[in-house]
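Example 3.2
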Amino acid sequence: MEMMSNDLLIKNARVWPSADAEVIEDASILIKDGELIRIGKFRARANTLIDVDGCLVMPGFVQTYLHLCQTIFRGIAEDMPLLPWLKNYIWPMEASHDPASIRASAILSCAELIRSGTTAFMSMETVRHTNAVFEAVQETGLIGVICHCLMDETGGYKPLTVELEESLAECDVLLDHWGDHERLQLGVAPRFALSCSGDNMRETCDYAREKGLLLHTHASEQIPEVELVKERTGLLNIEYLHSVGLTGPDVGLAHCVHTEPHEREILVETDTRILHCPSANLKLASGIAPIPEYMKAGLTVSIGADGAPCNNRFDMFMEMREAGLIQKPRLRAQALPVADIVRMATLEGARTLRQEKEMGTLEKGKRANLIFLSPDRFHVISSKDPATNVVYSHEASDVMLTMVDGEILYEDGRLTTIDEAALRKTVVEQRQKLEERAF
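Structure, written as tokens:
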């Protein structure tokens, strides 16, 4: 019998350490100071005991592409193609944000993420008020790479035009304040090839690499976008991004729906990360990204929900299910096996954030980022395979507990770091004020 203090013991669990591991039945997990100390069949004493009564315990999800600043826009523009959707609705709302509205949007995002089992994320915010996003996320307890967005006159939308020198100065301020944070990191996000000049992107890449920051942009989401990039630059989208430095293992490219074979060779040669957004790609009629082909080529592919206005929710269960289903008609029934999808939603997400040694699987020495899933839902009962259940049977409401760094952020229907009633009131008020400013 082990004797521990200042620690937490989870017992009577069905522990699923990773997409590539077998379930450990009737298992325990010992956590100390936010770190996984021991996993398996053992007995121990602890300061805090959680009896999960047969719940599946697995790694928390890692979403690699979100817009926390857009969540408060949910439902603002439906059934529209990408470019008019951006210029007529999303960008005017982003340009009208103030610290209060963007804070409300970020906390609303985190509430939804926590409730549905996401424990870490990467987001692309807007060109101003990124510090308010950091402050909001810090309060909620989530782990995140929060990317400051850059746009210049190339985008043709003056209210979101910010000079490069000013944008990078803002990044310096954010680094000074948040650079040593244990859970939050800064990333840099030139929005996409149509909103930043080549010189802007090159200098931004140099800045990010000098500071050791992740880079993030959109790429090849829709055919009109690809055609416009070709018209302006003479290159296809991935070719152009490569020419300005936006490829590599420190770069996350969202979407990558429309790519040519030689562009895929560039992605493989540079080990660029692909951020897959199945629901958003369907809702904006962007198309179906060739994810099995990317994975077969050895690329790191992870999953993100994109923004609430084009999804409309941050539900990793929905994203995993759709990621699997949409590939089968275009390839075959065997396309994209369930274990691969779960790996994309956990370990590959952690790898994209360069934190695979800290999260993405349940292993000794890693951060205690995990979720409990109910075994008693009618839509799950009788199925034994955890990967099948997680991808095709479970839903967000099956999450019973979400834990980050050993801290419980959600348990039995209650958020522990967010005042839900106050949040609802604030979001409604800030949405109304935001629309009045924007339109």
